[in-house]
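Possible regression after last week's pipeline update?

I re-ran a chain I had predicted before the update to compare outputs. Posting the input and the new output here so someone can diff against the archived version. Not blocking, just want to make sure nothing changed silently.
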Amino acid sequence: MWRWKIPITIGDLKDQLMTAAEKAGIDADEINGEVETVFELLLEVMRRRQVREAGH
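New output (post-update):
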């Protein structure tokens, strides 16, 4: 199961990602067109982080 030092949800990360994209002039449809879902992207990032931290 996921173990995090800081409580955060995927929803929080998605909101931050979409806000940053909007500020950069990137439309949400553009992101969704490149990635099946933003949630899948975030899950993959979180999985990789867990693997990286487990290796140290």
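Follow-up from reviewer: compared with the archived run. The helical segments are 10-23, 28-34, 38-54. Marking as no regression found.
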